[in-house]
Design a protein that fits this description.
The chain has helices at residues 2-40, 71-86, 104-116, 120-129, 131-134, 142-151, 156-163, 166-181, 202-216; strands at residues 52-53, 60-66, 91-97, 189-192, 195-196. It has 218 residues and is of the alpha+beta class. It has 2 domains: 2-40; 43-216, 3-Layer(aba) Sandwich (Glutaredoxin). The chain is globular.
């Protein structure tokens, strides 16, 4: 009986080890494909209209595909902010919009109207702070998003005029076309100097940024 249990345990152990190796190889394959695909579509990672936070000439660029209604984007905001503070002259953040949730497209335009008023970061942080109140994915309350932007000092009359303009709609559609071409299907999705994360996580993002900063310093 003991012998039989030992054999079963051994077989299970070998099977689990094989699964872990297979999963690791699969993730490496997926990451390699993403990296090759992004390299072939490099012009789609950063556009002239994209918001840039940090030094424009920084040697390391984090591109984040971002949805203002995404809870994980909200959770990652302090992570990215910490990386920017850790490498103040070496890292810049480029935000690309991925309006996957209902109402996100309008909130993206609200953010862009804030950028036109030089209120981008303060409005972004206000919207993220209020996200649990306005960003119900099935029935978002955009009036609360507008209220959060107004509390951050946005001129709402100007903002509403900007939101109605075809310019912001064209910008948003360009971002949607780019994320589709790059096969981005979730938020946040990060690229660091064109490289995707080996797997999703704050630690993986920090390690990839550190690698690119180190290479830039050589």
């Amino acid at each position: 009986m003991i012998h039989r249990k030992y054999i079963i345990a051994l077989v299970l152990g070998v099977a689990l080890a094989a699964f872990a190796v297979g999963a690791s190889l699969y993730q490496s394959h997926v990451t390699s494909n993403q990296e090759q695909h992004a390299a072939g579509q490099s012009e789609r990672l950063v556009r002239m209209h994209s918001p840039v936070i940090g030094p424009r000439e920084a040697p390391v660029t984090i591109v984040e595909f971002f949805d203002p209604a995404c809870e994980t984007c909200r959770a990652f905001y302090p992570v990215v902010k910490d990386l920017m503070q850790r490498y103040p002259s070496q890292v810049r953040l480029v935000i690309r919009y991925a309006p996957f949730h209902q109402g996100s497209g309008e909130v993206v335009k609200l953010l862009e109207s804030a950028r036109l008023q030089d209120r981008y970061l303060v409005v972004l942080e206000s919207l993220l702070a209020a996200q649990p109140q306005w960003a119900d994915h099935g029935n978002p309350n955009l009036a609360l998003a507008y209220s959060a932007a107004e509390q951050a000092g946005l001129d709402m009359a100007r903002a509403r005029a900007d939101i109605a303009s075809p310019t912001l709609e064209a910008m948003l559609q360009q971002d949607v076309q780019d994320l589709t071409a790059l096969k981005v299907d979730k938020t946040p999705t990060f690229f660091v100097n064109g490289r995707p994360l080996p797997s999703f996580g704050a630690k993986q993002l920090a390690e990839l940024v550190a690698q690119e900063v180190s290479k830039a310093g050589k």
